[in-house]
Amino acid sequence: MSYVDAMWVHRPCGRAFLFGFLVISLAERGGLGTLTWLAIGTFVGWLAEAVSIRTRFPFGMYSYHPSNFPDELWLGGVPLFASLSFAFLSYFAFTAARTLLGRIEGRGAAVRRVPDAALDGSPRVAAACAAITVWLDLVIDPVSLLGPYWFLGDLYHYHSPALHFGVPLTNYAGWFVTCATVALLNQRVDALLARRGLGPRESFRLPFLPVLGIVACGGVFLFIVAITAHLVFSGVLPPAVPTAALLTNGLVLTVAFAALASVRLLPAASSAPVAEARSAHAAVDPFDEVGRP
Predict the structure, then answer these.
(1) Parallel, antiparallel, or unpaired for β 74-75 and 156-158?
(2) Is 67 helix (H, G, I), strand (E, B) or coil?
(3) What whole-number distance in Å separates Cα of residue 213 and Cα of residue 190?
(4) Helix (H) or strand (E) holding 109
(5) Closest Cα to residue 92, out of 53, 143, 141, 131?
(6) 26: part of which helix (H) or strand (E)?
(7) How many CB atoms are closer than 10 A to CB 52?
(8) I need a surface site. Which of 56, 93, 213, 228 has the fewest CB within 10 A?
(9) 216-220 contacts: CB < 8 A, separation 24 or more?
(10) What is the pLDDT of residues 20-62, one digit of tens each?
């Protein structure tokens, strides 16, 4: 079995999330925009990890266990699927940030994001993207450390005990820096391509497209919470693991993200029909002040 084949066979969740990234990004950015995000996100994620396992920066000191995964493709001591995760998680967060900070119009499956190139290329969206990926990783990393007890496997360990379920706070700072870098670099590349008429553009329409990034983030949250619940209630975890606190951590952060998205999106969705009705009325009213019979 080839390295790439092994990666996809043993990582069904990564395969599903990568497929989701490709569908959403191709719809929103087209083929070139998707390729640039995938390349930049994967390379920056790989570089950050390759540096960190040697110098502690930016995630803290940790080590992967290549001998446990001889069929995986390892590059400089980092598994390829881990580098790919930076690409798709950062994109889910980026498109979610665009929707949460921007304006949407329409309703139902026809909802759309109001184009705003200045916002899409702003540091504010890059920072929000990084913050959302950290939010995700606050749920992901504590459960990833328990890989020996589920199908992820014994993938890595930190060199010293840490505050957040064994994960050092430097890890989350590293995720913020790394994913902010991914977003900022892609914004700069997008701007350069746009000046040549090759910038990101919708290549096909998907129903509910502006909210699919938020849904994808929610899918990641729910997947990890489901794994956590399985570990907690199956009784496979050692007594030293604070199972109740671990499950609470995942549930609280997931519900908080859903609440934030709802508070932001529900008012916009409820106001859209009113705005459309007013616009339509103004366009067709035959008894206006100028043309009254």
Answers:
(1) unpaired
(2) helix
(3) 19
(4) none
(5) 131
(6) helix 12-55
(7) 20
(8) 56
(9) 216/17, 216/20, 216/21, 216/24, 216/92, 216/96, 217/92, 217/93, 217/96, 217/132, 217/136, 217/257, 218/254, 218/257, 218/258, 218/261, 219/17, 219/20, 220/17, 220/89, 220/92, 220/136, 220/139, 220/140
(10) 999 999 999 999 999 999 999 999 999 999 999 999 999 999 9
What count of other Cβ atoms lies within 10 Å of the Cβ of residue 132? 24
Residues in the chain: 293
Name the nearest CA neighbour of 21 among 41, 47, 44: 41
Tokens in use for 225?
Answer: 């919470």
3-state secondary structure at position 69: coil
d(CA 260, CA 5): 38
Q: Which tokens go with 54?
A: 């040697």
Tens digit of each residue's pLDDT (9 = 90 or more) over 85-97: 999 999 999 999 9
Do 239 and 115 contact (CB within 8 A), yes or no?
Answer: no
Beta bridge partners of 104: 113
- Strands 156-158 and 112-113, by their bridges, are unpaired
